[in-house]
Amino acid sequence: MWKLLLKTSPLPPLTEAAPAPDDAALAELAARLDAAAKKRLGRSLSIREVDAGSCNGCELEINALNNVFYDLERFGLRFVASPRHADVLLVTGPVTRNMREALERTYAATPGPKWVVAVGDCAKGGGIFADSPAVVGGVSEAVPVDLHIPGCPPTPTALLQGLLALLETVK
Amino acid sequence: MAGLSNLLNDTPEVAEHRPWPRHLVSPAQWEAAARGLEAGAWTLVALWGEADTAHMALRDAANGDFAVASLACPDGCFPSVAKVFAPAGRLERAMRDLWKLEPADTPDARPWLLHGGEGPRYPFLTAEGEGLHQIPVGPVHAGIIEPGHFRFTASGETVVRLEERLGYVHKGTEGLMAGADVARAAKLAGRVSGDSTVAYALAFACAVESATGIAAPPRAAWLRALMAEIERLANHFGDIGAVCNDAAFSAMHAHCGALREEVLRASDFCFGHRLMMDRIVPGGVAADLAPMGAARLRALVALVRRRFPELVRVYDNSASLQDRTVGTGILKTELARRFAAGGYVGRASGRDFDARRDVFYAPYDALSFVVPMRAEGDVNARVWQRIDEVEQSLGLVIQILDLMPGGAVRAEFVAPSGAAEGCALVEGFRGDVFVWLRIAEGRIARCHLRDPSWFQWPLLEAAIEGNIVADFPLCNKSFNCSYSGHDL
Hints:
Chain A is an alpha/beta fold. Chain A has helices at residues 2-8, 23-30, 35-41, 57-64, 97-109, 156-170, and strands spanning 45-51, 77-79, 88-92, 95-96, 115-119, 135-137, 147-149.
């Protein structure tokens, strides 16, 4: 372990420069966030991730945000273990019939002010799974959505751009 | 007990089924097949239904013979396999939920994939004893993972019983497949379980090609294997780190996460998608390896060979980490064999099976690799199993780059006009993925996709027994079963 630390500590960090926030996402958000919320939260957001029926592809890329290349926490964004601690719900998947109640209850357990970010193509209208009777539809069928980040799955860079746009507006 | 070929000897065979035979059996033969499973004469590869028919895919343990047995169920009822062979239980419950096929005399008549909304509460199994308490966990978990419910019954810190309740991400994938054209069905197959998108696309494409007799060009088979090994590497790195992270050893997680990211970036560079979704299609692959792709992959292998051994040494030499993983969550060999547990879960418990070697599909017949094995069956063995498999995959990537033939990468795919049936078994990172399908009038009439997790999830319940609740995340991550792949 010490050898590994000695070997890696003189090296420059792998963490990369931040991408520019997504302009379209910024515009979408600006209208929805009020000044009071910005003041209260400062430049920091706690995120609770909810898989409402995804194939797990989106989760893989959301997890990648925590790796050393993207290092989400440097922007004041962090994933939390409970909706009680969250400002943002990051929801993936088409919402399945079997997950609808859990998603609604997670939303209800999140204190306001709160935002919902729908992630991935399925999260908008259900994507490729839209016609299935086992699926309710997109995330907005169950809870109000503030921002949608498209992609199948969205790359970590696309996710970062979307989340930074959220942060810029909340600032 | 005589072999599988004896059992199915005099039964009518379905002419359009390939590459292995499909036999129409009587209820008595169906029950004999179930008893053969219990006796260990053959293993259960899959058990699924469609309107009025129950199917069971079997593999002879002695000679590797493979066959599908189909039972007509005109009254919507078939003799329960779970009645004599418990591993079939959840599969039968799913058949009942999705196809209204009733397993006669089933030991467990509770629904499985359909939750029924506001209906009566799900009756969990009970545990009796003094001072027992229950801990409900999920479906929304603390981490960034898929949803499922775990019901622990504990005595103090010790788990007495774990019962899983799954089905939360049931999307009706097989229902959407029915009637879809082959291109759309291939996309759906690639979204059964995102971490195994290559394995599923490969299994689906192989099944379609078997059914239709259309062969992918040789170069395509090699490119498919290249993607499959890259997917294996990415998942192994991610999960080795994640297991260590669940023992609060975050440095390993950070370093393994960096390796995983390097693999995904190389995938993106070589194939145009970080997870390589939709790159394998019936008839071949969507696009050839990018120019300079081979050089990029060789550089990746060199990087991993430089960095990974140091991480393995850290894992092996950190007493605090070993203290958590050694002797934790032991899966016994006997159970792994009985459930035909695939992948590292089976192999770390002494079940010697790998579809790349034992089913023998191109180009693995031309590649040299060994299938690592361990006997201990604990979390540590599963971590080491994956460490050993990383080395094999690195070797395979280099061999593929060295030996890959040139030529076309995609054969023109024309859906046949008549009926055709095909199946395939391929090795994903998690274990063997099975796909069976019937094509009629150019569209998918029925497609069944069986994730390796079906036979691994129940074993997690057995492996956690007697361990402390706090070791569950560690055990769970060392299995890393798929929720979406299982829930369909």
